[in-house]
Amino acid sequence: MDAVTVGTGPAVVLIASVLAIGAYLVAVVDRVLFALVAGRPVLWSVVTGPAREAAAVARRQPVTTEAPDRILWVMAPAAYAGLAAMALSVVPLGPGLAVADVRTGIVVFGAAEALAIVAIFLHGWAPNSALPLVAGYRFVGVALSYELLSMFVLIAAALPAESLSIGAIVASQEPVWNVVRQPLGLPLFLIVTAGVTFTGPLAIVDSPDLAGGGAAEDSGVVRLAWVGARAAMLVAFSAAAAAVFLGGWLGPVLPPIVWMALKTAAVAVTVLASRHLLARVSPERFVHIAWTVLLPLAFADLAIAGVVSL
Amino acid sequence: MTSAAFAVFSAAAIWTGWRVFRTDSMVRASFLLLASFLNVGALCVLLLAEYLGTALLFMMTVEMVVMALFMVMFMMNPAGLNPMNMVHQPRFAIGAGVVATLGLGGVAVAGAFPDAPAAPIPATIRALGSELLGDSMLVFETAGVTLVATMVCAVMLSSARGRYGDDDGGSVAPPLEPDGDHRPEDDLVDDGGGHGHMHHGGH
Q1: Per-residue model confidence as pLDDT tens digits over B68-121
Q2: Closest to B85 in 3D by CA, of B16, B21, B15, B18
Q3: Between chains, do A104 and B54 touch, taking CB under 8 Å as contact?
Q4: Engineered SS bond to B9: which of A165, B42, B57, B117, CB 3.0-4.6 Å?
């Protein structure tokens, strides 16, 4: 292990507060974007709205289904939020400011991403109900087709750094950011982000055409936990995208942590905007596009990274 | 601290591995097996096989997801939620397991292992191997070839279009009554007004 610079207690506080504040901001930004796209005035209530709505959802009566797998149903949001924490823990938020900037940071991040597939699938599987079940299986089919993209673009980013540590990857972007020298990386990673958080064109899990899909039977605190965990995952993925492709904390004048926050916010806003601006793609079509177009592009990204690094 | 963690992860790996055979659904069995693998991955990290341990996490995850999906797809229990027995030929399996454990354990404990060092590798080959992949040469070589073969086979098996055309070309719906006539308007696939049936290749 390289520099583990945050102790256990502060690490828990740091990760939990970044994810909680970030998730709340995600909800606020989502409302702002909705108002802008709909041409409505952006009112002050967008700031307090998510809190009021969360309180209302949490107070609602919990409803259950016939013979569900209760443990997995409750565990799924917890696991998903825990994986967001695991993903964020390997991302340095500033020079030396990481919970665990381990040598295999990229691999740990990839493991969190892969395990999120399990959490999302089980969340749809556990209620023993038709539409969530369909959503779970549908998600697995789609997830398997974009999972490789993420691995390829992350490994491509690790090539110039000659390290799997995300801190080293940020440091390697001192001369030029990865978004410039590997232009395919960030767009492909944004697709993966949309997939893991099922946002925008890839909002195919908890989607209206399945009456809410995986979350159709959720109620009360479990529903609130699922929505919150999903926003937290978006924060973790945005931070990773900012670190791996946009130079992380690097930037003039402003303090490093501010640059990191700004870049993370920019990525999150881009993904959230896709929710209001782009149509949902059908799962079959996306799987076709993923294997025939996106995967070759990811290969090309890796090849470009290799040639540039020579 | 490390020893305690080692004990906890080992116990969890064994317990979840045992639960695989005690549960009643394919999906639960797959993900209990995954839990067992995750604990083994944590053990690898504790043994300072950092890359191997973390790689085990995501490789086994995707593998078990694929396994759960495919097992449920080809099973009579479509959702993986209905109770079913996870054990086949239990008596024979117990016997085989005990014999194998005793045999391998006996060899490990009592066996005299040969102590003949391999012939020294020529310096250039060693340098090339280290230059390419460092210490992980063997792992990467084996995993790489296996993965490529798997990917090619999976794409071949799952592709809807083969060299003889669409694999559902000419598919027809079963008749509504037993021994009834097939009605062309019920064709599962519309491949050109019914003219294209049975004309894929073969001429």
Answers
A1: 887 777 665 655 566 677 777 889 999 999 999 999 999 989 988 878 777 887
A2: B21
A3: yes
A4: B42
Chain B positions in Cβ-Cβ contact with residue A111 (cut-off 8 Å): 54, 57-58, 61
Mean pLDDT of chain A: 88
Interchain proximity A111–B81, CB inside 8 Å: no
Is residue B46 within 8 A of residue B5, CB to CB? The reply is yes
Q: Using a CB-CB distance cutoff of 8 angstroms, which residues of chain B are in contact with residue A143?
A: 65
Cα A168 to the center of its chain, rounded Å: 21
Among candidates A118, A128, A291 on the partner chain, residue whose Cβ is nearest the Cβ of B81: A128
What region, left, alpha or beta, does residue A228 occupy, with left being phi > 0 and alpha being psi -120 to 50 degrees?
A: alpha
Is the dihedral angle over the CA atoms A275, A280, A284, A288 positive or is it negative? negative
Q: Which range is most confident: A145-149, A189-193, B73-77?
A: A189-193
Residues 14-73 of B with CB under 8 A from A: 27-28, 31, 34, 50-51, 54-55, 57-58, 61-62, 64-66, 68-69
Single pTM value for the model: 0.80
ipTM of model: 0.84
Report the DSSP pairing between strands B165-166 and B161-162: antiparallel
